[in-house]
Amino acid sequence: MRNYKKRDFFAIAIVCALLFSYNSILAQENSKAAVISKDLKWSERMALSIMKRAPKPWQIDNNEKTKWDYKLGLAMLSFEKLSKKTNNPIYFDYAKQYAESVINPSGEILNYKLEDYNIDNINAGKILFDLYKDTKDNRYLTALKTLREQLKTHPRTNSGGFWHKKIYPYQMWLDGLYMGAPFYAQYSSEFENGKDFDDIAKQFEQVHLHTLDQKTGLLFHAWDESKKMDWANKETGTSPNFWSRSIGWYMMALVDVLDYMPKDHPKRKELIQYLNDISKAVAKYQDTSGLWYQVTDAGSKKGNYLEASGSEMFVYAFAKGVNKGYLPKSYKKLAFKGFDGITKKLITVDPDGEIHITQVCASAGLGGNPYRDGSYEYYISEKIKVDNSHGLGPFILAALELEK
């Protein structure tokens, strides 16, 4: 047997490292060059397109470095669900690659500060449940427990609702229900014997009570319990307009929380009723194209536009609501009509089969600096982007529900 010297091992290590590097580069180049077949289902066409543009998950949205982020978490959640549906591990591995880039071996989360009390920071935690089950890597369990600790001390309105962020005191936004409630429900179900479902239901009850518009049946984007914000109605505390994506967040939160709420829980029927109520209201504003406008009730008013992410979220909630038996079957037709509108009006296809989602509102909120006043003019003035991450995860989730 040959007696290897240290320099031989060093040389072999260098050669192996170079080969690994070369193979990684080659794999990326092959991925970029690959043609995405139009015969694949829409969910996989979108996922493969994302992977082609962003070989590393954190590169979505042209990010220059990785970060713990609610939008990336939403996209990775859709990849986990796609992996389950297709039994193809490449999608799960993509989500795992993201998690490994933001959670160190000790379970510490990159750029996360519990004391910020930002409800958005909970959302990406949804991907950790399956990662922990699949890998048994304790970093994911540690991160899960960290996020659960935030909810234990997260500041609340006097009526018991989670503030959207510490920097937005006494405010509940529809967005926040999706960011926090499904994680809270899954954690409670899997680790705490479902002990907190009354509190989870309370989050929806508070938003329904304080943001519902009796005239339209829609929900205003936010509510300020203190009524001190300039955007807040001085009598009701509500923001002045309906934003489709915020209502979409609320509806997705409902159908996802119901996955974990026990069938005999007394609050379950209440949440299903909320879903039916908001679905009925949203259906009234579906455009003939199948899509919905950025400002939900304003139709083709000057400046308003058919927006991708809100439309995708409505389609997802309608389709899942029917699939789970929460909504009448008629909503499945509306979901198909909506998805058909998305693929015909908002999807573009490159010669190599890569697909892009257009007309995605990049971001919208209230308050802050520069100040966002919640006016109609504000919502239509925010940037509109192609392939913005808000429009990626919900597209895959909607496609998966309809493929059932």
Automatic annotation (TrEMBL):
Q: Which organism is it from?
A: Flavobacterium reichenbachii
Question: Which GO MF terms are attached to this record?
Answer: hydrolase activity
User: A Gene Ontology biological process annotation?
Assistant: carbohydrate metabolic process
**Keyword annotations for this protein?**
Hydrolase, Signal
What name has this protein been given in UniProt?
Answer: Glycosyl hydrolase family 88
Cross-referenced SUPFAM superfamilies: Six-hairpin glycosidases
Q: Which InterPro entries does the annotation name?
A: 6-hairpin_glycosidase_sf, 6hp_glycosidase-like_sf, Glyco_hydro_88, PolySaccharide_Degr_Enz
- What are the boundaries of the signal sequence? 1-27
The answer on whether this UniProt entry bears the keyword Hydrolase reads yes
Q: Which Gene3D superfamilies match?
A: 1.50.10.10
